[in-house]
Amino acid sequence: MKRRLSEMTRQLYIVGIESLPVIALSLLFITVMLITEFSYHVKLVLRQDSLVPAFSTILMVRELGPVVTCLLLASRIGAGIAAEIGAMRITDQIDALRLVGVRPIGYLVLPRWFACVLGSCSLSVIALGIGVLGGASIAALSLGYGIQEYFNTMFVFTRYRDVWGCLLKSACFGTLIPWVASYHGFRCAPGSQGVGDAATRAVVHASVLIIVVDFLLTYWLRTI
């Protein structure tokens, strides 16, 4: 039990703390780009951009926050999990775990699943916060919004159910990443090329599944 807790803590550090700078920087610039483009196109159509904070916020909460965060995690964490488990498989370390009575799923997969679910939810919320602050900054500096005006407008369309939907998507995507990566790791072919192929397939398949599941969850959340 103590060994599993230690492994969970280590994996949570890898998923959460080490991934935070990349995700925060990416969401910051995506939000700045989004608000700039929204402002430009809305002005072309409506001749004013007063609803840009509201449009950008609901898009970040519903889609960009969880999806971009977990796509970045799939590329960073998914490849690492597949490569690590694949290397253990081809060096017979997984068979050694079975010989000493340790179940590979419980020892290798579950701590990574726990860390990915908790990490993806936490990182999505943090990324949303950073995106909102970045959006408010660019709106104040280049679009003529006051900070108070931006925050007063941003929640026109966003509701609490959208935040819960964001967390639900993050948890589902955080479940997909380690299970898909572990599956390819356990099926890794011998040799260094096999490890590389397993890592590549893990990233590709996890990314595609995240996009497909995002569509299904979005459709379901809009119909309930």
Note down, in words, how this protein is organized:
The chain is an all-alpha fold and 224 residues long. It has one domain. The protein has helices at 2-17, 20-46, 52-90, 93-99, 104-142, 147-153, 160-186, 192-223. The longest helix is centred in the first third of the chain and has 39 residues, at 52-90. The chain is elongated and about 70 Å long. The mean pLDDT is 88.
Chart the SSEs and their pairings.
Layout: H1 2-17, H2 20-46, H3 52-90, H4 93-99, H5 104-142, H6 147-153, H7 160-186, H8 192-223
How would you summarize this macromolecular structure in one to three sentences?
The chain has 224 residues and is mainly α.
Output mean pLDDT. Answer: 88
Topology pattern, helix = H, strand = E: HHHHHHHH
Task: List low-confidence stretches.
Answer: none
Task: List the domain count as a whole number.
Answer: 1
Keywords:
about 220 residues, mainly alpha, about 0% strand
